[in-house]
């Protein structure tokens, strides 16, 4: 069981108020991702839940138990750190069994649980190695192993994939998702990478400067971003924003249109522009179109991989009308 | 890049340093070896003659020799234990955030800059003196008999004095080592349910082991040759209670004017120091590899 409730939680370091009063409910078994730009307080929030930082005010409860004053070890949570934080002088086996040893389990039980965890994580052959002899992905798995042997109420991940190379990151993403499916334990995952957030989360919490901007399922955030920040943060490539006369036509201060909701044509369309940089990814092509009458920023368009449009070509863009997001002067969504 | 040409150029360039070092080491060493086989007494100049191994037999069968070895070991061991245990504790203390941290850290290193002769004299006259010393004053203040440190516990007193001088060194090295410990490891251990003591023994101490080996190695080299502290406090006495090997060699050659026996003692000391060095290098090699 891992239902975590934060009520009016705040955190300040000296005069700097990192987390203004914040409420959040995390249901049992949910995969929640905290996402936001660096410095938005997402890691601090995770550390508050872990108990590694004390809240300045407010209440945290885990499984209906008041946990605000509890030390980290008593909260029944396990954490996977960005640097993995493996103990370099201990073998993989000792690393994984360390929490069990601290809990005072007998040797046989320790071995049993370590073997089981190693099997799940494909670490059986590496149990007697030191962390220094393992690759990045294997170290990551050891860190996860150390977390799962404790059978915690919830897992906390602090940007666990940011030290891995791109290919490995995709693999580990899948592994963590599978782990969540098989364990069905609450997981809280912090990342600045919106792709990780979109692909893994049941629920995404978008943070900015300690404030929760929006909470929802990935598709919910993608379809109905509550404000400009969420609209710009979720989705890759970023949403295009157009202000001024064109936005006024739609009765909004700003309109947003995602690159995948624009069609491009050489002959006809609503907006005229010149192609700048085009990025060919094979499956897709991202074209950066300069439309000076609309906006000073280039407009990103996602198109077919095989599209025959080049730098300097004059093109016409047409948005899909029902996919236009409208925002008011404060940046809030107009529905 | 190690071409034949660059290799010979490198050899040529380091040769002055090598030659200087060789001269510096080899000339005194060979002279000492030479003297150790001579009957060479400063009171009878001009009567030097070949003595074979007589000097060695004389030095090695001298009861003072075994006392000196024992005292040397006690001195080195005692100071190492005090500085490392104390150094770890002080490092832990200084690693905590507190007001005036910078100044305190600088002050802590201060004893290391006090010359051994000076610090020993200060300890002898200002602290340990049974009449004028601060300890005697404190003892009298609570109604106790003043304790004559250098007369009744001479070796322990010298160990204390030397340890006081080396404690900052150990503290500083261990403090920097402690600061290089990844704080996420400690937090991970905290999440894993480790108490402060478990964190210390399972995480911090293993992390410090390299630094501790380095401290042991460097200090042993210097502690084997402690001399000034003994000379200005007890002069090796009472009896041979505080005579270590270095002091015995000095006493033999310059107090008893027997340069031959002194040189033999010097050679014996070199051999013993090398035996210690072999063990140390093995220990350090093992510890630094990991």
From TrEMBL, chain A:
- Is Transport a UniProt keyword of this protein? yes
> How does the record classify its membrane topology?
Peripheral membrane protein
Keyword list (alphabetical) reads:
ATP-binding, Nucleotide-binding, Transport
**Primary site of residence:** membrane
The record's GO molecular-function terms, alphabetically, read: ABC-type maltose transporter activity; ATP binding; ATP hydrolysis activity
* Residue span(s) of domain ABC transporter: 4-234
Question: What is the annotated localization of this protein?
Answer: Cell inner membrane
Can you cite an annotated GO cellular component?
A: maltose transport complex
Q: Which SMART domains match?
A: AAA (SM00382)
Q: Which family does it belong to?
A: Belongs to the ABC transporter superfamily.
Q: Identify this protein by name.
A: sn-glycerol-3-phosphate ABC transporter ATP-binding protein UgpC
UniProtKB/TrEMBL annotation, chain B:
Q: What is this protein called?
A: ABC transporter permease subunit
User: Which GO BP terms apply?
Assistant: transmembrane transport
Q: How does it sit in the membrane?
A: Multi-pass membrane protein
Coiled-coil ranges from the UniProt annotation: none
**Location of the ABC transmembrane type-1 domain:** 69-280
Cell membrane keyword on record: yes
- Fetch the InterPro entries from UniProt: MetI-like, MetI-like_sf
Membrane-crossing segments per the record: 12-37, 68-94, 106-123, 155-178, 208-228, 259-281
* GO CC field: plasma membrane
